[in-house]
Amino acid sequence: MTGLKSFLAEFLILFLLVNTLIVSFLCIDMPEVEVNAGSIVTIILKFGVLFSAPVALLLTTAHFLFAKVARSTILKILIAIIVVAALYFIYHAFFWYVGISGLIDDPLAK
């Protein structure tokens, strides 16, 4: 039970951290958008939750696998390669989604 609590706590911390990074990146990247509570909530709901959950789950699972499962260096390298490849894919999916979302319907338009 302690392992599950620490897993959930680590997941929530990473989820909030990644969500904060996404919101700050999009607020800095789009200077023409007025930053207020409404635009931040829109960013969190439209982009943050969608991409924070997979990244937080991936990093939390990787940490668990490093700590509990991977005993040899080869397994640790394999886990690291898989995590980096998955983060690279999520990175491109994020920018594609932000670009398509801006082209189809500007989520932050007034």
UniProtKB/TrEMBL annotation:
Positions of transmembrane segments: 7-28, 40-65, 77-98
Highest taxon above the source species: Bacteria
Keyword line: Membrane, Transmembrane, Transmembrane helix
Lineage: Bacteria, Pseudomonadati, Bacteroidota, Flavobacteriia, Flavobacteriales
Protein source organism: Chryseobacterium bernardetii
Protein name: DUF5658 domain-containing protein
